[in-house]
Amino acid sequence: MEIIHVSAECYPYAKAGGLGDVVGALPKYQNKLGHIAKVVIPMYNTKFLHENEFDVVHKGGFGMAHYWFNYTVIKEATNVLGFDLYLIDIFNLLDREKIYGYDDDIERFTAFQIAVVDWISKWEHKPDVVHVHDHQAALIPFMMQNCVAYRNLSSLPTVLTIHNAQYQGWMDWNKSSYLPEWDKWKWGLLEWNKTINSLASGVRCASKVTTVSPGYLNELKYNANGLEMLFEYEKGKCVGILNGIDEEVWDPATDTYIETQYSVEDADEGKALNKKILCDQFGLDEKKPLIIFIGRLVGEKAADLLPQAISDSLYYINGGMNFLILGSGDPSVEYQLQQLNGKFMGYYNSQIGYNEKLAHQMYAGADFLLMPSRVEPCGLNQMYAMRYGTIPIVRRTGGLNDTVKDIGEKDGYGICFNQATVGDITNSVYRAVQLYSQKKNITNIRKQIMQIDFSWENSAGKYLGIYQTI
Ligand code: ADP
Fold this sequence. Notes:
There is one protein chain. The chain folds into 2 domains: about 1-245 and about 455-470, Rossmann fold, CATH 3.40.50; about 265-450, 3-Layer(aba) Sandwich (Rossmann fold). The chain has a 9-stranded mixed sheet, sandwiched between helices. It has a 6-stranded parallel sheet with strand order 15-14-13-16-17-18, sandwiched between helices. Strands 8-10-9 form a 3-stranded antiparallel sheet. Helix 10 (about 330-345) links the parallel strand 14 (about 320-330) and strand 15 (about 350). The two termini are about 10 Å apart. By secondary structure, the chain is of the alpha/beta class. The protein has helices spanning about 20-30, 45-50, 105-120, 140-145, 200-205, 215-220, 230-235, 265-280, 305-315, 330-345, 355-365, 380-385, 400-405, 420-435, 440-450, 455-470; strands at about 1-5, 35-40, 55-65, 65-75, 85-90, 130-135, 160, 170, 190, 195, 210, 240, 290-295, 320-330, 350, 370, 390-395, 415. The chain is built from 16 helices and 18 strands. Helix 8 (about 265-280) crosses helix 11. The site of adenosine-5'-diphosphate has 19 residues, from helix 1, strand 13, strand 14 and helix 11. Adenosine-5'-diphosphate binds next to helix 1, strand 13, strand 14 and helix 11.
């Protein structure tokens, strides 16, 4: 089977979060299973672009509103990623340093999607499936089926994977002229709640829709940022498939980002050495449990609760612990977290920003990873943490609920709580501190979680099963 994945992110070329990790791994595993999986994303101005060679494979152009855009498709020349990576270059529109966060993101990603559809329509043979990811690619099924110029794609099967339904690519109706000439009586396929809603359109038009965990699919029926009814109507075509992790990238035995590699057999020693280096670097106390948070500092991740929960924990919990935070996002949360640096020197530190290497070092050196998320479609951090023997402390939601079992249950290996509140977080931190004092238990749990199979093989096979049905 030949599959083309369309996305805004793909690790290691461009990553802002879990979407990049998944699109950088799933195609590799689909290829290993004997299929041809390719990826196309926008050409951003990143380090990877300048460090690798690319060949031009296609040049084309299209009109969007009153403007004409020329685009070039380039392909990574050496197959360094384990799959063919194609980049769409549109001068002055896509070739920026960041992936998202510009005022004209709607124009940028609409143009990207038109270019992808235009390019695929020119292929001599057609792919078996067009697999689009999140709202930045979710207008593609509509365009393939309803745009006059692309009728030759109308019967190709499409899959939409939803990594995060909070962001939906809303567009005012006055931007409907951005789309290439389309059958106007089909406007209902674009609209949700009086605006064009890219994600809703993708859910309606794709042959199948997947979410990145089964638990998240259930949650979307009552918590989908306004699309709850749509997920209820379309439940027949929706399937939840848990993400895997790329065990070639995330393996403490081979990880070159970390100071001391380790595996299940020498997990305690390996972790202790990595913890010491991390604690020395950030002025923390290596004798106390180290709890980390890595992620976007936004409401979905309940990052706004961290400053109070950390302060309360450090004030009130006897025995003490350390916290180390890595993330960026809401400026007021960033500010509050930085303010704590001076207040709790020796037990707390925070790094504001994005740092892939430090993230690996933190998974390796920490004892616990905290994820109090309000919404967590799958969550990769808890799986990476477990692979590195770091015990997850998670709120029971979405993929966190699907992957972590509380130590109070039979064969449990994590700490789970129900509410995204300061009280539930501090109570869980208390449980973590208690657990840390039972050295034997910690060693056993560490070995247990490092051996849980979160590999992609299983999930990649499930996606192939979905393609076969369409
Ligand atoms: P998201 O909702 O952000 O996609 P996931 O848990 O699915 O959350 O994936 C998060 C990914 O992004 C993980 O690989 C995590 O290590 C990484 N990540 C998030 N924030 C940072 C950061 N500030 N620095 C380095 N890596 C980060």
